[in-house]
Amino acid sequence: MKNRVFFVALALVLALSLAGLGCPDPIEPEPELTVYTLWTEEAERQAFNAVLAEFEDQTGIQVTHTAVDTDTMLVTFPTAFAAGTSPADVVLAPWSAWIVDLSGHLLPVGELLDEDEFTAAHLDPVTEAGQLYGAPFKMAGKPGFWYKPSFFATHDLTPPATYDEFVELLADLDEIPELEAPIASGNGVGWPLSDQVEGFIIGLGGYQLQLDLIQGTVAWTDDVVREDVFGPLVDLLEAGYFSVPDEWGTQVEQLDAEVYGMMWMGDWIIGMVEDSDDIDFFPFPQTDGVVGAIDYAIVTEYTDWPDEARELVSFLATSEAQEIWAEIGGYLAPNAEVPLDIYPPAARSVAEFMLTVTVVPDLDDTIGGAFQSTFWDQLKLLWVNPDLVDDVLEEIEEDAPQPA
Amino acid sequence: MRRLIFILPALILVALIVIFPAAETIRWSFWGWDRLEMTEFVGFDNYERLFGSRSFINMARFPTQNPPWGALIHNIVWVIVFIPLTALLGLFLAVLLREVKGGSIIKSMIFIGMVVPLVVGGMIIRFVFDGRAGIVNAALRTVGLDDLARTWTAFPDTALLSLILGSVWIWTGFAMIIYSAGLELISKDLYESASVDGASPWRTFRRITIPMVKPATLIVVVMNLIYVLRIFDIVYVATRGGPGGASSVLAFQGYLFAFQQREWGMASAVFTFLTLAAAIISVVLVRRVK
């Protein structure tokens, strides 16, 4: 019996071996790229898919798009890179500090784009040791407070031109009984509050203050920050003009439902509200700057298709690719060759505004590391305990960059 | 020899997915890191930084001021509040529902909390304590305690408490089931004797029920302790350790070090400390169970 089993097994092994010998040479697999992004909202995902479809048509290279949340991306790639692998060939991420930290596991992309089509402010944050590691694909403008013009018209409200008018507007909104608070405060991972505070930093302290804080040449405990920026902000918090922080997507819905009067948010809010014709923004009164946060396309060192991945990044950096999403809306192109008239009206007004002021990088995305998580978490504390402002600023300063 | 062959696959698996990663984590905790690369041996530097960090222990605020008190103290507070509450509530429900008609259906409903994934549990906690739609705040308003009605998870003085109370809801079902099993093992003769001797219900409970369910109590305490030491999901989903670190716990702090700050040496130090603490406490308690 044992012998029979042995010979049957042997015959099977021989048969399989011969079958293998008889097989034709393996077919070279077709290249298929995997791209990871943070665009989990349906409108954003569809818009990016339209860009990818054009790339597929032009090159015949298949691309699979996977949208993940912030934490998944933050956790997945550093651990995968440490293990010498990557779940994606190309990643689109907005954190320049994160990209620089991971640059040892990325392929340079400097040769893939025409640097003259971008500003140095877009390229410098992802340049390490003279090599560019990220191709700017999407710019998220964070221009100011978004509101429903129909709601403002109903209550005879007008966007403010000065800071005093802004405070008056908040007082007027506070008088409307059906509103829970004049300003919706977004929460979640932490960036919605930091975006809003950056608006105050630039609006009350000037865009140079934002750059100084990024460089670490001004401390968070300095008077220019504590008194000029956080002083007025704390006054507004103590007056109850900001809501208690809640998940930011929910807060956008509440803005739509007129539970709140306005909300500080990036231009992608246009694609999230029910009626994109009934949403408009006003910038921080008399501001001289605005945050333009860039989503960069990066190529991982561990891609199986380096040439195809580079081809995709090269395509994404062109005005041709960026015009596709620009036409759809909810998007600003970092490529200077993209004409303004291509944008839908709401996005065009953001793009036009951003041409009138100095565009600066996102503060916490540029610094990254311990600072970012501390900044996000301490602002949540400030929002509910504004009297702790000095403790909050000291905590933030502890993890802030120091002057070189 | 044959026994060894049978357990070898399991041993290999344990070595690969438990012992090797644990040993690597311990090794990493003694090294400096720069951008995903191990740089140099730093001895106990990571541990010194950890124990000196306010995010780990903040004695300047504890106990006179509101949290944050540091992740370690938050874990200890969790142990002190959560374990007695869960055990007492579980025992109370087990005794109460023992003789009630349809008690097993009510027990199943209470046990649902235990079946719910902890991530979902965290979302439910956030919703339950929400200022606008939460049932807790609705109840507070109903009884006239409007001042307490707010989003509990958003404020430093209530964030940790709301997470602990939410966890009690989730884990009470487990304690109740263990105690129910323990109560079944108590001979009815004991209760009859006590009744004949004229013992009051409270005296019967104190002198017969509590001593006889001691083994169940130890199981509840050990399991709850292990749960509390590795608590992460609920904190991650409901508060992300905030605001201002007011509800952070050790496992979440380790996560922050590893993935937000990419300080892998510090993260490894946190998890080494956590593993050692859990191992020592578990061994001591399990020996008592024996």
Give a quick precis of the structure.
Chain A is of the alpha/beta class. Chain A has helices at about 1-20, 40-60, 70-80, 95-100, 120-125, 150-155, 165-175, 190-205, 205-215, 225, 230-240, 250-255, 305-315, 320-330, 345-355, 365, 370-385, 390-400, and strands at about 30-35, 60-65, 90-95, 105, 125-130, 130, 135-140, 145, 180-185, 185, 245, 260-265, 280-285, 290-300, 360. In chain A, the strands form four sheets. In chain A, strands 1, 2, 3, 4, 7, 14 and 15 form a seven-stranded mixed beta sheet that branches. In chain A, strands 9-12-8-13 form a four-stranded mixed beta sheet. Chain A has a two-stranded antiparallel ribbon with strand order 5-6.
Number of helices in the DSSP assignment of chain B? 13
The CATH homologous superfamily of the largest domain in chain A is termed Periplasmic binding protein-like II
Structural class of chain B: mainly alpha
End-to-end span of chain A in angstroms? 80 Å
Biggest β-sheet strands, sense, barrel of chain B: 2 strands, antiparallel
CATH class (first level) name of the largest domain in chain A: Alpha Beta
CATH superfamily of chain B: MetI-like
Please compute the radius of gyration of chain A using only Cα atoms: 25 Å
Total helical elements of chain A? 18
Number of strands of chain A: 15
The whole-number mean of residue pLDDT values of chain B reads 90
| Model regions low in confidence, pLDDT < 50 over at least 5 residues of chain B | none
Which whole number gives the mean pLDDT of chain A? 90
Number of domains as seen in the coordinates of chain A = 2
Biggest beta sheet attributes of chain A: 7 strands, mixed
Architecture of the largest domain in chain A in CATH? Answer: 3-Layer(aba) Sandwich
The coarse overall form of chain B would be globular
Strand content range of chain B:
under 5%
The oligomerization state is heterodimer
Widest sheet, order of strands of chain B: 1-2
